[in-house]
Amino acid sequence: MFSNNLMVAIGGLAAVLLQVLVAPNIAIFHAIPNVLVVYTLLIAMLVPGQHFVLAFVLGMLSDLLGYGPVGAMPLLLIVASALASRVHMAFDNGTVFIPLVVLAVSIILVEVLYAFIAVGAAGVDPMDAFIYRALPCTLYNCVLGLALYPFMWRLFGKREPQLGSVMPGPHLQ
Amino acid sequence: MALNFKQGSPARSYTVLVLLLAISIACMVLYSREDGEGPLHSMQSTVSGLFSPVLAASGGISSVEDTIASAVEDATATPETVTALREQNQELRSTIAQLEEYRQEAERLQGTFKLTSAYDAKTVTGRVLSRSMDPWNMVVTIDKGSNDGIRSGLPVLGSSGLVGQVVSTTPFTSDVRLLADPQSGVAVMVQSTRDEGIVRGNLDGLLYLENVDDDAEVKVGDVIITSGLGGGFFRGIIVGTVVKVDGEPGSSKFEVVVEPNASAKAYEEITVITSMDSDKAEEYADKVAEEKEREESESSSSSSSSSKQDDDNQSQDGNANSAYDAYGSYGGYDASGNVSYYDPYGYYDAYGNYISYDAYGYGGGGYV
Fold first, then answer.
1. What topology does CATH give the domain A2-172?
2. Does ipTM exceed 0.90?
3. Residue B125 main-chain phi, psi, to 5 deg
4. Nearest CB neighbour to A67, from listed B25, B54, B132
5. Which end of chain B is more exposed for a tag (fewer CB within 10 A), N or C?
6. Which of B20, B61, B133 shows the shortest C-beta gap to A19?
């Protein structure tokens, strides 16, 4: 358990550094990937039971390093990671499809709700916020999640996932 | 810490969940109620300041990415191609690239210097360290802070106009919210008519002129300058030019798009104005407006001249002389076939066809 905690913490630190150093430099138009969100949600699915504190800490760091309202990202990350963890537990059938769907839905939930909280006060059209930011960022984060999932599974799971294969989740092993 | 729903104590897990949610909500409420000097805002600035060395490294990531791409390209080349000549060539390329970098930097700084001189402004120029790591805020961090005399609210210039406003500072760094950010708003006026409004950024990356009076007169080409109202910006700083007007003032579909005068591409050095002479700034904006008008009139006379010329060529069987006398510098050939006036955009060939200069100053730009 300690080993897993340590790995989760190190992964969190790496996610913060990636977000600060790399993410702004790989933006496509105005869509910037959010490594913190992707990492937290993947951990919530792969290592259920450790995501609340991780979501809070990473969310708080995200807000403190950024310019949005402090408290918004931890709130959304905690809610999204709790939902992702529960839904993944309930529907995981060992394929990559379910985690990716759960990840995509969780990410879009975070992005859309954050859009309302962060820029709602600025009088921005919600449709603009969705089209110009939330949707592109969600797609970008889903691609990032797709790339990270096998790697994270190797770190935190037992077996490498294969498309369409039956693969027991780590909580079932 | 065991926070597992299945393996740990459910009660403890729910307690932690509720506690963390409560803290998050409390932070949000406190943040929205406090002013810029409140504890959470201060903590945000402090954490940003602590991470400034890391942020500085972020600025170099782009160049590192280029270097890595170049290294990968080199590594995949066959050994035969890696000759001494190629190495030498690459060294020369590297030197040229470095010199080009210095040249561009000098150009940018010259532009900034010219602008600040025209404004008679006291300024602090900083290098951009990093950009916002979230997509909702268009904010850059520069390597100058309160120790250099920068404070929140000061306007920031690029090489040719306003680019944003300082929103927070630490002793060594400052955060600048760019004009295109939806949360930015600048009190402005149309220079020619003095009609006032507010220029706001939008998520689509454009600037919009809003809150304009119903009887305002706004047309394409109008220069927009800061009005100084609200105290956030000094009066007279050039913001941009109106490029599109849809609808009538007062109607719900009225929309004015403003093209920023400062380049929208990535900023590397930007200048914070700590004090300035607003009258001189307006004089400079006048000059810019005059220059734009002159350019527009030149381009329109050029197009009308060439079209007129075509008509006359057709009607006068190639004798174009009398047609372009009326258009001044767009004269062309005299009766002997010599060029009578210098035309910076092109020339007429022996058949009376107007040939525009291409990008290199040669007559390869094609017929007009």
1. Arp2/3 complex 21 kDa subunit ARPC3 (1.10.1760)
2. no
3. -100, 130
4. B132
5. N
6. B133
